Amino acid sequence: MSTISKTFENLKKQGNGALIAYVTAGDPTPEYTPQIAKALIKGGVDILELGLPFSDPIADGPTIQAASTRALDAGTKPKMVLEMAKTITKEHAVPVAVMTYYNPVFKMGLKNFFSLAKQSGVSGVITPDLPIDEATEYRNAAKTTGIDTIFLAAPSTTDERLGRLVAASSGFLYLVSRFGVTGTQAKVADSTISLVKRVLPFTAGRVPLAVGFGVSKPEHVKSILEAGADGVIVGSAFVNIVSANQSNPEKMLSELEATARTLKQATLK
What we know:
TIM Barrel
């Protein structure tokens, strides 16, 4: 069983949900990422997603697009992100997943990428723009190294395709809560709750279900977990804190930890 699966299993035994935090690696500069990870983990984050900055992040809204630009301008490279993951996993027991578009993986080579990811302590990889139909070699390379392949399902995903995504996913299934790109929202829409309930019969007993896109407040977390999801993914809310406090690192880290703690409280039974 992978470290991500064990994390979900342990939380489920306690009756709690998982808080998964996304941050863009290298934002605002590479040396800050381990410190940001530490603050989030101190705040109670159960799983950390490190976003590999990319020049054309089609699934991301303005917040994460700007974070990618800052990280790239600061000289962040794919191998540097894996080195950041190594630093984090050596210090903390929290699983780390890398979220990346497929182009950097392809350029590095599947075997090389997954081998380096394994050496860096990475537990899972999320590749939003890789269709499941074209992911056979990718899945095989990940399986060889024992790294989870986390696929995304959307509101438009058909039942037939949903079944295939669940079968191909390990660690958890990433459920995109709404149409569009990443970014904070004022409230959780009724359609999101309905979507969670629609997907649950497919994931139950097979793979944990985590919901992302727009989750930023404790009430969002509670609503989604009460609908039956196993975890929530929070990204833009954390990236906004990084963006707003680039010139005040102490405040940045303090706010990240406090926000994570508040959101984590909402996952507890």
